[in-house]
Amino acid sequence: MSIVYKEKEEQFHLHTRNTSYIIEVLEGRYPVHTYWGRKLRFTDRTGLVDLREVCSFSPNPLDSNKTLSFDTMPREYPDYGRSDYQSPALSITDSSGSHLIDPVYDSFRIEEGRSLPQGMPGCRLTADDGCDTLVLTLRDSILDLYIDLYYSVSEEYDVIIRRTEIRNCGNKPVTLNKVLSSTVDFYGDSDFEVMNLYGAWTRERQVSRIPIGRSGHLVDSKRGASSHEQNPFLALLRPETDEFSGDVYSMSLVYSGSFMAEAAVNSYGKTRMQIGLQEIDFQWQLEPSGSFTTPEALLVFSPDGLNGMSGIYHRLFRERLCPAPWSKRERPVLMNNWEATYFDFNEEKIKALIDEGHSLGMELFVLDDGWFGRRDSDASGLGDWFTNLQKLPGGLKSLSDYAHRKGMQFGLWFEPEMISPDSDLYRSHPDWCLHVPGRYRSEGRNQLVLDMGRQEIQDYLYCSIAAILSENGIDYVKWDMNRNITEAGSAALPSERQKETSHRYILGLYSLMDRLVNEFPEILFESCSGGGGRFDPGMLYYMPQTWTSDNTDSYERLFIQWGTSYLYPPVTMGAHVSEVPNHQVKRITPIETRGNAAMSANLGYELDLMKLSSEEREKVAKQVEFYKKIRRTIQFGDFIRLLPPSSDRGTAWMTVSDDGAEVLVFYFGHLLRPNDLGCRLKLRSLNTDRLYMTEDGEKYYGSELMYAGISLPPLDCDFDSRLIRLQAI
Ligand code: DGJ
Q1: CA distance 491 to 512
Q2: Across the strands, what pairs with 531?
Q3: For residue 368, which atom of ligand 1 is closest to its CA?
Q4: Mind listing the pLDDT tens digit for each residue in 556-582?
């Protein structure tokens, strides 16, 4: 049983495979967090938190007990205004204008399996995954406001999933100013480092790890998207934790809009870690009888360092977050025309690329931006989702038929959430974009953002996209989003609800994607936001892969794919070979290395194949052929980080197939150094007594590969790389 209620002790014990999480109700009123970490065996102890009377600067909310102060108490769901001076999980304004609330323990229930938050993505865990849900209910008696704290606990997937639901059972409206999904207090424990994944366009998910110190660490996005800037993720690590050992406590938010995650230590050495919706562009009017649900937060603890944490997320995302039909289905080798043609293409050029891709073994052709409306540059056309017949006189169908006749699939680019001021759609519906009357409408890449919370806009997009997909034999969709949100106002909402616009946008987006992916379950959807500006668990629930970054330089990609891999498995990452000099950084790297970087995830090509030399053609054909042999392991095996890109010895990672029979080792050198002896790389997760053989017939025992390591000769040139395939014999 993953959830145990100990009545006498008033404790709730949540257990996964490696973790225990314990809550105790103090004074029959206050649920406090007493433990999260390595799995515990437990005696019948109460008073897990040793509270004692403190100074007058930590006031007491109960007259009867002077040892109680929220200042020291590790509460499960803290509010503000009554002696808790850390960042609250909940902030409200009631009809009198007061922000006070006193949520007191009311009741609990334990449910089999779990339900997802209404209208939002989440992990599809069931009772068969050893998953049960504890719902702890708190109540403010003056407002008659109920707070349900949900904890879904999966033994099998080693995760605790939290969310919060607020129900207004009173007779007056309440304004929600902040409602987080999860918060955890570590009582008297501040020996942590904080890790997050930060970045920018073309520099996504770089790793930051610093001591927690005594100031707050805020990781957030206010961009209306989870963003390139920060990923909705935060981890606390012990100073000694590394990739293979030590404790990691992490939270990841299943949400694609603005968010916040925070870690801070208070004057008593209590560390608070939390995650949820961003507060600056959020507010929600909760009418009597209304309820509000937060996105869900995934709480993953690993006693086995960062690779241990990643292994838990990878399996959970692959098998229980991404759409079920894609959880085990191999991804095609694709070619995309964006960097080959940009907007400058016609039917003939596309057919020539299809021919060439087909002869090189590629399986899916993706027609990127520029096929619709009057879109010959990024200055016009978004919103006009009909084929540009001047550019493609035979229509999309003739192109998709052409690809299909060759046995290739055909995919298409959309940017549904946007509208160009120079479009028929904008001329007919100038109020459909996010805007505030009388204020300037800021453009980004010459485009405005549709008000996705509005039903008629979702319906327009559903009908126009569904028509294109069903009439033209489309096998794949790239769903792009190329700017962040400004002037987040909605023409459809009254003034007191304007601050609901950003969250309603995300709910509307989720609803539209839900309709489309359910209507077209055979289509492979890939999300994109100028590369990885919305690489988050929320998008993965609908679309099983994401275009990792617009940066296709194979050296830069090592940093991006390394950082991305902390949460997201290779099968969720799009990775393409592009031409040199690279279009983003002008760097020249060998085609083998560009291939090896892209083969570490879902392989694609994004360059003008017509310009390849015959030697390059041969190499590309070989890469494609080889990738098809190893892709099951790449896409569904266990990925392990070995050497970080910041290391002066090069970058390395490996993947082991789920039956352990195939091992793929990727090593990327950086700059060539004189007088270099090469590198000895120690592998992980092998069977010590098993014999493994390389493609060249060299044999090694697992123990030798792990403890003595495999020898990699010095590089032959800058940015040289190796891909070693080992098979158990
Ligand atoms: C941004 C994407 O990240 C690119 O791959 C490409 O699809 C362009 N948009 C097209 O406008």
Answers
A1: 19
A2: 549
A3: 7
A4: 999 999 999 999 999 999 999 999 999
